[in-house]
Amino acid sequence: MSRLPFNQGQPAFIPLSTFQRYPEPEMVERSRAFYADIRRRKTVREFTSQPVPREVIENALRAAGTAPSGANHQPWHFAVVSDPELKRKIREGAETEEREFYTHRAPQEWKDALAPLGTDSDKPFLETAPYLIAIFGQKKTVLDDGSEIKNYYVPESVSIAAGFLIAALHHAGLATLTHTPSPMNFLNQLLDRPAHEKPYILLVAGYPADDCMVPNIGKKPLEEIASFF
Length: 229
Prior knowledge:
Layout: H1 24-38, H2 54-64, E1 76-81, H3 84-105, H4 108-114, H5 125-128, E2 131-138, E3 140-142, E4 148-150, H6 154-172, E5 175-179, H7 186-190, E6 197-206, H8 222-225
Antiparallel strand pairs: 1-2, 2-6, 3-4, 5-6
Helix pairs in contact: 2-6
Organism: Pseudogulbenkiania ferrooxidans EGD-HP2
Pfam family, one: Nitroreductase
Keywords: Flavoprotein, FMN, Oxidoreductase
């Protein structure tokens, strides 16, 4: 349960005091620098068990919590797991679903699409990496008095917050993996989350292994992902 993270009734406004405007040359340089940094990010499946300061994770989550959301309801919950026994149980649950996926659920076309990534049902990183962050979307907000408020644009809001989180962890010097076993409702039970919350992503975070290998893949160029009018 939670307190209202948003206003009800009449709108209330305050002056915009946090916006920072830059000279155009500096804007261009900052945009180039951000792109140069974020393009280094790679999805990693080989992690070390080296501990990560909890404050790094907390600050990245704070950054994720600043994401825009439908009606500012902030319909997300981040369940952070570092306990080895709980990570082991999560791995067991994920691998059960993944074995079913690769053996029965996934059509051949889907498995063909995954082939260049070298994925399979074995997920040792779920135990090796120091942190797992289960990202849940909340269909409704349950307040401290037991009343409920419907949330809006939940998938869109959670996706934006997850993007903020991945970027923040990368900026701090960590590698990540977006793991999405399907279905993921075993996470609700293991992490004691209510039925009105849906797990969207199991985000793995930590340092890449010294001998880490990543798929030799690229990203679409600007002209293929954007159009200007």
